[in-house]
Every structure is written in structure tokens, then in C-alpha cells.
Amino acid sequence: MAAAGLFRGFGGLVVAAALCCPMWAQEQAADGGVTYTRNEELLESVFIPMMPGAPFSLKLSAEWAKPMANGGTYTTANLRPIMRDSAGRIYQERWLMAPKGSSTASRMSWIQIADPVAHTFYECTPRQHVCELRTLKDSAALRLNPNGMRSGPLPNGQGFRMHEDLGKEFFAGVAVEHYRDTTTVHPGAMGNDLAMVTTREFRFSPALGFNLTSVLDTPSVGKQTFTVTEISTTEPDARYFQPPEGYRIVDYRKAAAPPE
Q1: Which helix (H) or strand (E) holds 254?
Q2: For residues 133 and 152, what is the distance between their CA atoms, to the nearest angstrom?
Q3: Which of 26, 158, 174, 223 has the fewest Cβ atoms nearer than 10 Å?
Q4: Any idea what the Cα angle at residue 15 is, between residues 84 and 174, rounded to 5°?
Q5: Could you tell me the sign of the dihedral formed by the alpha carbons of 138, 179, 20, 37, in that order?
Q6: Digits of tens for pLDDT over the chain (260 positions)?
Q7: CA distance linking residue 203 with residue 179, whole number of Å
Q8: How far is CA 259 from the centre of its chain?
Q9: Where are any strands of DSSP class E within 3-149?
């Protein structure tokens, strides 16, 4: 089973079109994608900026439908909490993806706490009751740009992309802006015998700075769907933004510091 994302959800750059057409991708904050390690695929989750003055608590549903060689799909899923306080600190739990509809249960793999004020990042492992403490890189200013993709042809006539504004609406009681981005690569442009189409559809909240729904559908990796199932915009309990009680702290900041 693949874990549901790593540190990038706190502000790392994600190449928005890397699963389809890296030669035309622009680095920007985005939802979804895959990081490959030696042993597994790691699902990139939603991008949550460290944005002060906009607290919330939510539960995020994630589903990943991977294409199978016989034409079917294999779907895994999880449900996890994310919180942000008025200072911009972020608490989120990472849960392993489990086969959808099976008897295999998802379980929590990490607790992650990012503090842009103290410049600290904790990654805590429930099994070992250990929190690794590192310096948080300065990415607090990174924000989603819902109009980051512009309609027009790809270089050398190898395809085209379309950015659509689907209008304003409400989702889960929050005002959102609905968009769809489509990138089409013509046959033969990347060794493909048929056209390759990648779509990203999302509902962006300007007040909160992230997407309440986000669907990324790519030819090679499949369909990744992220949906906020419930949300509150009241201030979360301050205890969530400190290491869990009873966990041992391993401080890696001194080891990583450059020599004087």
C-alpha cells in the first residue's frame, strides 16, 4: 500500500503536468501526482499553504483509481484530518491508502506539524512514538494559483491546453471558484499512438487558499480524487500544533546546520 503523500503537501513544488508532459510543465503548487521511491509509489495529496488568519479543521477523502492492463481499475482510498490555526501552523495526519471496499483497513502512518513562525517541522511516527524535528524551509509565501494554466498550443504544435472557468459556487458551505484544465498531446508527440489527455478539475477557495475538491486524471497514473467531506473555519485546539504527549523528540537541526 502507498502512503498518502509526504512533506510536499506543506509547501513543496509540484510539477503540475509531470505525469503527462514534463517538457511543457511549469513548477507551481498543485494537488495530486506521484513520488516514486525504491519500494513504492507515494501519492501526493492536496496542497495546503501556511496561510495566517484563515484557520480551519477538515476531513479529506482521497481515492486513487489506477489503470490495470486488462482495462479495469484498482482503487485505494483513505480519510484523514487536516487543521490550520490563525498563525498558519498546519497539523495533518498521513494515513496509508487501503483497497476501497475491502476488509483491509487504513492506518495512520505519520503525524506532521509545520510551524512557519518557529520554522520547525515535526514528523511523528505513532508506532515508535518518536517525532523527528527539522528546520522548516521558508515556503510560507507559496500559494496556489487557480489561473496558473493558460489556454493555447503546446510548443511545436504537439498539442494544446485549455483553461476553463466554470463559475462561482458553494461547496461544503464555502464559496469556491470552479475550474478545469485540460492538456492534450497529439499522437506521436511522446511515443504515444493515441492522443494523451490529462485533466485537472478543482474548486478553489480564495478565503482558505486551497482546493476543496481536486480531481487529477492522467493516462499513465489514473484518476486521483480529493474531496473535503466536512470543514469548520473555527480555531482548532492549540494542542494539535505541539508534538503528541509521550513522544520522544529527535532533533536533527544541529546535525543539518552548516559549520561556522
Answers
A1: helix 253-256
A2: 45
A3: 26
A4: 35
A5: positive
A6: 333 333 334 433 222 233 333 333 444 578 888 887 767 777 889 999 999 999 999 999 999 999 998 989 999 999 999 999 999 999 999 999 999 988 988 999 999 999 999 999 999 999 999 999 999 987 667 889 999 899 999 998 899 999 999 999 999 999 999 999 999 999 999 888 999 999 999 999 999 999 999 999 999 889 999 999 999 999 999 999 999 999 999 999 976 555 55
A7: 6
A8: 34
A9: 14-15, 27-28, 34-36, 41-43, 56-67, 73-84, 90-95, 98-99, 108-115, 120-125, 130-135
Give one word for 103, left, alpha or beta, with left for phi > 0 and alpha for psi -120 to 50. alpha
Model pTM?
Answer: 0.85
- Domains of the chain, by residue range, sit at 7-254
* 202 strand-pairing partners: 179, 214
Query: Grid coordinates standing for 189?
Result: 508527440
| Residue tagged 476501497 (cell numbers) | 100
